[in-house]
């Protein structure tokens, strides 16, 4: 059986105390860095800009009088407000908050019928 002297016990207690303090400082530093990273990533992103896909010219420009108003992506707006409200400003500034309009394909002009001959007399 080994018996510790009073001095050995004090040294062990001091060693463990120092070890616990070092661990707590490391955990505190990690927590602060993680919170800073989460805050920074949230501040630099917004839902519609990140997840909304490519922003079209129609989304970017303001409608002229007589043109149909742009529709807002409600899901992205709610997510911006709940997750990080300054992201709403970014989405409106970039136009990403607006729903893209479907691209209309141009229709070909009707071709004259070739079944009837044309008389040029």
Molecular structure report:
The protein is mainly alpha-helical. It is built from five helices and no strands. Helix 4 runs antiparallel to helix 5. The longest helix has 38 residues. The radius of gyration is 33 Å and the shape is rod-shaped.
Task: Give a topology summary.
Layout: H1 6-43, H2 47-51, H3 57-60, H4 74-83, H5 86-94
Quick description:
By secondary structure, the chain is mainly alpha-helical. It has helices at residues 6-43, 47-51, 57-60, 74-83, 86-94. Helices cover 55% and strands 0% of the residues.
Could you list some keywords that capture this structure?
single chain; 121 residues; mainly alpha; 5 helices
Helix content: 40-55%
Element order, helices and strands? HHHHH
State the distance separating the first and last CA atoms: 130 Å
The number of distinct β-strands equals 0
Radius of gyration equals 33 Å
| Helix and strand composition category | mainly alpha
Enumerate the spans where pLDDT stays under 50 for 5 or more consecutive residues: none
């Amino acid at each position: 059986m080994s018996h510790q002297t009073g001095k050995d016990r004090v040294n062990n207690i001091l060693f463990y105390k120092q070890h616990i303090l070092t661990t707590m400082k490391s955990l505190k530093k990690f927590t602060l860095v993680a919170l800073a990273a989460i805050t920074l990533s949230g501040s630099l992103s917004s839902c519609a800009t990140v997840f909304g896909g490519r922003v079209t010219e129609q989304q970017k420009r303001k409608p002229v009088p007589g043109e149909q108003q742009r529709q807002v992506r409600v899901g992205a707006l709610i997510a911006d407000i709940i997750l990080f409200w300054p992201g709403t400003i970014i989405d409106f500034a970039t136009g990403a908050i607006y729903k893209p309009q479907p691209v209309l394909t141009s229709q070909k002009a009707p071709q004259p019928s070739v079944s009837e001959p044309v008389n040029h007399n």
